[in-house]
């Protein structure tokens, strides 16, 4: 595959890729779990801790003001990245998981009651299942689940048929972490909004690979994580529509989320601070916005195009290997290639592949209901980023042949 994308220059920004694993050059195909950080991100975090580390919003001294300005500028940058209407609709969390838990808890407290329904799909990550189950336990609501076909796609007509006057919220992935399926979230939102049903989109796997425009999608909530977007672990974002966030109670209590506290009564702060109790991860927030700026400087549209080329090349390469079955062959995919090798357990295959210095993920990928639905114990998952190459995919194909020789 010929490409004009300067991947060698990109790789020079990621020192971790230069190392050897088991005496072989590292091939990192576990990007759906965590991406690596470019030097720009680690340098920005180091600069924060070395020059202006301070708590924000609470000090009149110079360092506090500099840190506060950096954090609030980061919030504005994230708002532009996802095209939010207002920066105060951007809430910083520890990641997608906390963002979804925030909505499940706070929205659930405000709007769910016995007999209500929450609609999910079979493709969801556990982080977009378990918080809703917990909300059901607290409120008496129930879950409804949209099935998928064997290609890993949902049927919009089936989804529409599960919507009713009892549906209170729809929560769906933008991209499946296990199969790479791109869900038709804009169409899902339109269907749900016919009944005035709000929609939460889990964008953890989408934000690194797709242009996200929450106004165009029309969703009411959108969640994503820094560590899948070339930023640090422990930082994430919840976008929420202002009108809904104002109607929801705080998720946690403590500093920053208050306006006035007395032992008799507490009044809460305005958005977004109502949902940001305690000291934030300012270094992580700076790392996140630096990663977003890095992608913009690199050329995000070029990144998306190149990653699509990688996925297409890997799909054709693995399809040509006898005994390899691709799991998840949706017409619209990004970033992920899941597969099985005949008569070989995914864990055994992953162990052998690792001996060739290649990092893949094996197992159910926090999508046990999907694997049960497909009747498999899990898959081997290769997930791609813009610092990967076709030569690395060739190495993976060679390692798969070795697995077949040894175990199939």
What is the rounded Rg?
22 Å
By CATH reckoning, the class of the largest domain would read Alpha Beta
Intertermini distance: 29 Å
Return the structural class. alpha/beta
CATH architecture of the largest domain: 3-Layer(aba) Sandwich
Largest sheet: 7 strands, mixed
Helix residue percentage = 25-40%
The CATH superfamily of the largest domain turns out to be: Type I PLP-dependent aspartate aminotransferase-like (Major domain)
How many DSSP helices? 14
Anisotropy-based shape: globular
The number of strands is 17
| Binned strand content | 15-25%
Q: Count the domains.
A: 2
Low-confidence stretches: none
Summarize model confidence as the mean pLDDT. Answer: 96
**Major beta sheet, strand line-up:** 4-10-9-8-7-5-6
Model description:
This protein has 14 helices and 17 strands. It is of the alpha/beta class and about 400 residues long. The protein has 2 domains: about 5-30 and about 300-405, Alpha-Beta Complex (Aspartate Aminotransferase, domain 1); about 40-295, Type I PLP-dependent aspartate aminotransferase-like (Major domain) (Aspartate Aminotransferase, domain 2). The strands form 5 sheets. Strands 4-10-9-8-7-5-6 form a 7-stranded mixed sheet, with helices on both faces. A 4-stranded antiparallel sheet has the order 13-14-17-16, with helices on one face. Strand 1 (about 20) and strand 2 form a beta hairpin. Helix 3 packs across helix 10 (about 280-300). The radius of gyration is 22 Å and the shape is globular. The chain starts with 6 loop residues before the first helix and ends with a helix. About 45% of the residues are buried.
């Amino acid at each position: 595959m010929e490409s004009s994308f300067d991947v060698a220059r990109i790789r020079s920004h990621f020192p971790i890729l230069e190392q050897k694993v088991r005496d072989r050059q590292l091939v990192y195909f576990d990007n759906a779990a965590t991406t690596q950080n470019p030097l720009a991100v680690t340098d920005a975090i180091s600069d924060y801790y070395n020059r202006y580390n301070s708590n924000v919003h609470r000090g009149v001294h110079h360092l506090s003001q500099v840190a506060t300005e950096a954090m609030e500028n980061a919030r504005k940058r994230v708002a532009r990245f996802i095209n939010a209407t207002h920066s105060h609709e951007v809430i910083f969390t520890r990641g997608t998981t906390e963002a979804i838990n925030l909505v499940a808890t706070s929205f659930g407290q405000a709007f769910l009651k016995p007999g209500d329904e929450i609609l999910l799909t079979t493709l969801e990550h556990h982080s977009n299942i378990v918080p809703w189950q917990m909300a059901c336990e607290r409120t008496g609501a129930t879950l409804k689940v949209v099935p998928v076909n064997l290609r890993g796609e949902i049927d919009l007509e089936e989804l529409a048929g599960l919507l009713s006057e009892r549906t209170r919220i729809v929560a769906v992935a933008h991209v499946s972490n296990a199969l790479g399926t791109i869900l038709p979230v804009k169409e899902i939102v339109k269907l749900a909004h016919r009944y005035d049903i709000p929609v939460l989109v889990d964008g953890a796997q989408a934000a690194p690979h797709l242009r996200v425009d929450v106004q165009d999608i029309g969703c009411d909530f959108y969640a994503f994580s820094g560590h899948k977007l070339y930023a640090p672990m422990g930082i994430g974002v919840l976008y929420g529509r202002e009108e809904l966030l104002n109607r929801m109670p705080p998720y946690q209590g403590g500093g920053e989320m208050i306006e006035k506290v007395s032992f008799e009564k507490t009044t809460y702060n305005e958005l977004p601070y109502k949902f940001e109790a305690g000291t934030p991860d300012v270094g992580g927030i700076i790392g996140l916005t630096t990663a977003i700026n890095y992608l913009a400087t690199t050329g995000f549209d070029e990144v998306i195009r190149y990653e699509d080329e990688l996925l297409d090349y890997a799909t054709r390469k693995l399809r040509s290997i006898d005994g390899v079955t691709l799991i998840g062959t949706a017409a619209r995919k990004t970033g992920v290639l899941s597969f099985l090798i005949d008569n070989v357990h995914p864990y055994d295959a992953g162990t052998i592949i690792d001996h060739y210095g290649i990092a893949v993920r094996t197992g159910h990928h926090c999508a046990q209901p999907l694997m049960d639905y497909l009747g498999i114990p899990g898959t081997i998952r290769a997930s791609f980023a813009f610092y990967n190459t076709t030569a690395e995919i060739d190495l993976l194909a060679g390692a798969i042949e070795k697995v077949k020789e040894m175990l199939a």
